[in-house]
C-alpha cells in the first residue's frame, strides 16, 4: 500500500514466530530512539494523576487519567511510529509546536480506542472495593496497579476474562494508528477488514510478546514497603505503561506493514535528481 487506496483485505499471512523475532529485534535496534520518547509522556502522566488525585474521588480521578492518557500516547505514538515506518527521527520534544492535523487525528482515534476498555476501569474499582483491597502501591489516588498481585486471584481472574476479548477488539482496530502516523487515508473499517483473517495470529503474538512480559513484571513480588521505594515503583509503573505501549506500537507497525503491503511513498527529492 503506497497510496490512499488500501487493499480490500490482508495481502499476506502474519507469521507468528518471525513477527515476534522481528519485534524484539526492532526494539533492540531502536532502543535509544524509544527511550528518548518515553520521558515526556511519563512525566505528563504522573503530573496529571497527582493533580487529579488530589482534587477528585479516586474513581473519577482514575477515569479522567485513563482518558487523558490519549494525549501522552499521541506524543509517543506519532513520533515513534514515524521513526519505525519512515525513519523520521525528528526530536519528540518538538511535538508541542508541531501538534498538527496528524496528531489531532491520532489523538481522536486513541481516545476512541481507550473507550473500548474503559468499562474495565469500573470493573477494577468494583473488584477492589468489594475485596477491600488498596492499590498495589497503597495510594488511594491511584489504583492503576490493580489489586496487589496474588491477594485476590479470583478477582484477577474475573478482570482478565473481561479484559482479553476487549483487548482483541482494540488490537484489531488499532491498525488505524500506524496508518494515521504515516498520513494514510484509513479508518476503523479498513483496520477491521485487514485483520479479519489475521486477528487470531495478531492476538497470539501480542499475548506472547507484549502482554506476557508485562504480566511477569506486574505480578512479581514487591521488594520493599518503604515509602521511598513505593514512590520509585509508582514512577516506574508510569514509565512501564509507555514502554509497554512502545512495544505494542512497534508490533502494530510490523503487522500493518505485513498485512497491508504498505511501503513508504517514493522520496520526491531522489526522483527529481533523475528527471
UniProtKB/TrEMBL annotation:
Keywords: Membrane, Transmembrane, Transmembrane helix. The chain crosses the membrane at residues 34-53, 59-85, 106-127, 157-181, 202-219, 231-256. It comes from the Bacteria. This is Uncharacterized protein. It comes from Pelagibius litoralis.
Amino acid at each position: 500500500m503506497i497510496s490512499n487506496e488500501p487493499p480490500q483485505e490482508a495481502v499476506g499471512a502474519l507469521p507468528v514466530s518471525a513477527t515476534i523475532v522481528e519485534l524484539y529485534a526492532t526494539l533492540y535496534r531502536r532502543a535509544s530512539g524509544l527511550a528518548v520518547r518515553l520521558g515526556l509522556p511519563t512525566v505528563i502522566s504522573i503530573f496529571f494523576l497527582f493533580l487529579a488525585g488530589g482534587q477528585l474521588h479516586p474513581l473519577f480521578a482514575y477515569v479522567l487519567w485513563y482518558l487523558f492518557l490519549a494525549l501522552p500516547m499521541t506524543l509517543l505514538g506519532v513520533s515513534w511510529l514515524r521513526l519505525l515506518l519512515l525513519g523520521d527521527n525528528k526530536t519528540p520534544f518538538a511535538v508541542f509546536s508541531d501538534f498538527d492535523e496528524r496528531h489531532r487525528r491520532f489523538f481522536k482515534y486513541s481516545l476512541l480506542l481507550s473507550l473500548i476498555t474503559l468499562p474495565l476501569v469500573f470493573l477494577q474499582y468494583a473488584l477492589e472495593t468489594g475485596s477491600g483491597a488498596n492499590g498495589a502501591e497503597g495510594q488511594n489516588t491511584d489504583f492503576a496497579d490493580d489489586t496487589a498481585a496474588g491477594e485476590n486471584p479470583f478477582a484477577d481472574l474475573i478482570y482478565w476474562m473481561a479484559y482479553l476479548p476487549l483487548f482483541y477488539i482494540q488490537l484489531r482496530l488499532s491498525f488505524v494508528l500506524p496508518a494515521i502516523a504515516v498520513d494514510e487515508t484509513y479508518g476503523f473499517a479498513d483496520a477491521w477488514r485487514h485483520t479479519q483473517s489475521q486477528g487470531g495470529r495478531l492476538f497470539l503474538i501480542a499475548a506472547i510478546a507484549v502482554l506476557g512480559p508485562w504480566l511477569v513484571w506486574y505480578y512479581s513480588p514487591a521488594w520493599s514497603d518503604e515509602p521511598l521505594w513505593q514512590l520509585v515503583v509508582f514512577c516506574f509503573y508510569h514509565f512501564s505503561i509507555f514502554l509497554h505501549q512502545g512495544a505494542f506500537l512497534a508490533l502494530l507497525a510490523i503487522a500493518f506493514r505485513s498485512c497491508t503491503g504498505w511501503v513508504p511513498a517514493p522520496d520526491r527529492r531522489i526522483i527529481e535528481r533523475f528527471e
